[in-house]
Amino acid sequence: MSLPDPVPLYGPEYKRDPYPLYARMREAGPIHRVLFPSGVTAWLVTGHAAAQRTLADPRLGKNHALGNDRWRARASIMPEPQHSQLQVHLLHQDPPKHTAMRQLVTDAFAPRRMEELRPRFQQMADALLDAIPAEADGADLVRCFAARFPFQVLSEVIGLPPHLAARFRREWGKVVAPVGPADPGRPAYEALLRELQGYIAEIVADRREHPGDGLLGRLVLARDEGELTQEELDSMIFQLLVAGQEPVTNQITTALVNLMRHPEALERLRAEPALMPRAVEELMRLDSAFELTTWRFLAEDADLHGTRVPAGDSVIVSLCAANRDPERFPDPDTLDLDRAQGPHLGFGHGIHFCPGAALARIELQVALGTLIRRLPGLRLAVPDEELSWIPAVLGRGTSELPVAFERPVCPRSRG
């Protein structure tokens, strides 16, 4: 079957299982025009080798100023003034500004520091499962765990004080989802934006008065010393709060769904917990929460993988399609806990490789290890086809995860 031009990337069937479409696109070529639900068209790169080259291509910039009028007309980006105030974070910067801003956050997420915090993360995970009633034989793991654990971890890592962490609303994370100007949900979307801006202003004021030694206090100091503008400070806090925890929530759900689809792998991990680091990498390769990257743009018309791409058109990489490229990963649709074909692209590649990768890896190891160990007999409580996949354009995960299990195991019962 020939592919439409552009290829539509939306709808419940696509979000439930995009991989058959990605396979067809890879077979047809490395780059295709695609259509998003907002009406914006883009160029999507699908193969692993092409994805790596694209993510490291110095001709492609992330700054929205590079987008052309066609992109701006339908991109459903944030309205002003919020776009100028919240969208100048790391993901939308190019060197040398990107380099300087990234240096402000890398120490906070250094692998050694994250490993030192692992026992604290374990305490948090156990506390959430302790709250499940002893007589329970099921739960929604998004509501009682996956939506809460990453934010608790993030708050600890960046120095968000408890009184402010308690007031964070998960709904604010929805502001990264495209909502076009004519969409009936636009007023509610803009209200969420204003609420989130007010919350960020409270964080800045609190950390200016009580800086502490956390990342948030250091970012506020960088603003006061002239290393950041106010808009860059607010944008970086926005990125931390939204991109720093929701993708981990989604990755927990995709990993659990795939483990419950493969109960032999789940039981092997329960019996061999030392396999967990490798399992996390394979689960991210198989089904990444970062399905697509954010926009990139060419400053001039140029050839990209044999196709002429106009300046200012948006270029996006499908990390999920790249991670299932059979030319890179043999039998790519199979969950293989012994796979040794090298790294996946779930955290990106090049200068925009996720600075929080070490934290995310440890979070996933702790989360999955704790759930598998403490919830014996873990299985889906609804048919697989009834799972509700989030409609987000760039992300992949389930909005709910109803599971059944035997009686929860106390932490002190650990071997």
Question: How does this model look, in words?
Answer:
By secondary structure, the chain is of the alpha+beta class. It has a single domain (7-413), classed as Cytochrome p450. It is 46% helix and 8% strand. It contains 19 helices and eleven strands. The chain has helices spanning 12-16, 19-28, 48-55, 69-74, 82-86, 97-106, 111-116, 118-130, 141-146, 149-158, 162-165, 186-209, 215-224, 230-243, 246-261, 263-271, 276-286, 319-322, 357-374; strands spanning 7-8, 31-35, 41-45, 60-61, 138-140, 296-298, 302-304, 307-309, 314-317, 379-380, 402-404. The strands form three sheets. The protein has a six-stranded mixed β-sheet with strand order 1-2-3-9-6-4. Strands 5-11-10 form a three-stranded antiparallel β-sheet. α12 (186-209) crosses α13 and α15 (246-261) crosses α19 (357-374). The longest helix has 24 residues, at 186-209. The protein is globular. The termini are far apart. The mean pLDDT is 93. Belongs to the cytochrome P450 family. One of its GO terms (molecular function) is monooxygenase activity. Keywords: Heme, Iron, Metal-binding, Monooxygenase, Oxidoreductase. This is Cytochrome P450. It comes from Streptomyces olivoverticillatus.
Number of domains: 1
Q: On the 0-100 scale, what is the average pLDDT?
A: 93
The helix-strand sequence is: EHHEEHEHHHHHEHHHHHHHHHEEEEHHEE
Largest sheet: 6 strands, mixed
Oligomer: single chain
> How are the strands ordered across the major sheet?
1-2-3-9-6-4
CATH 2nd-level architecture: Orthogonal Bundle
